[in-house]
Amino acid sequence: MTTTSSMLESYPQDLGGGDTANVTACIEACIDCAQACTACADACLSEAAVDELRKCIRTCLDCSDICDVTGRVLSRHTGYDANLTRTVLETCAITCKSCADEC
User: How far apart are CA 76 and CA 56, in angstroms?
Assistant: First the structure.
C-alpha cells in the first residue's frame, strides 16, 4: 500500500463510492509526471543548444506545474467540487499531450 492510498483509505468520511484505486493511480501518475518534466527541463537547460530548446523547457515546466496542481486537487476531498476537478483533469491531460508532442 502506498502513502497515497493509505491517506485516501484513512479519510474519516465516505468518499462517495469513488474508485479509490483509480484516484490513487492518477495522483501518483501526476506526481511522477511532475518530477519527470522538471528533470527534463533541467536537463534541457544544460544542453549546449539551450536556445533551441526554449519551447520544450517551457512546456515541460508548465506540464510539471499542472501535474503538481492536479495531484494536489485530487488529494483534497473536503468541499469537493466536481466541475473544478473535471476541469483540472482535462487541463492536465491536454498539457501532458502537448508536452509529449513537444518532447
Answer: 31
pLDDT tens figures, 50-83: 999 999 999 999 999 999 999 999 999 888 899 9
CB atoms inside a 10 Å sphere around CB 87: 12
Distance from the Cα of residue 84 to its chain's centroid = 15
Secondary structure letter of residue 12 according to DSSP: S
Residue 20 is placed in which grid cell? 479509490
User: How many residues comprise the chain?
Assistant: 103
Query: What's the pLDDT band for 16 if we cut at 50, 70, 90?
Result: low
- Ranges of each domain in the chain: 19-102
Q: How far apart are CA 27 and CA 19, in angstroms?
A: 12
Residue with cell 484513512: 10
Ordered alpha helix ranges (H), 46-81: 54-75
Total-model pTM: 0.89
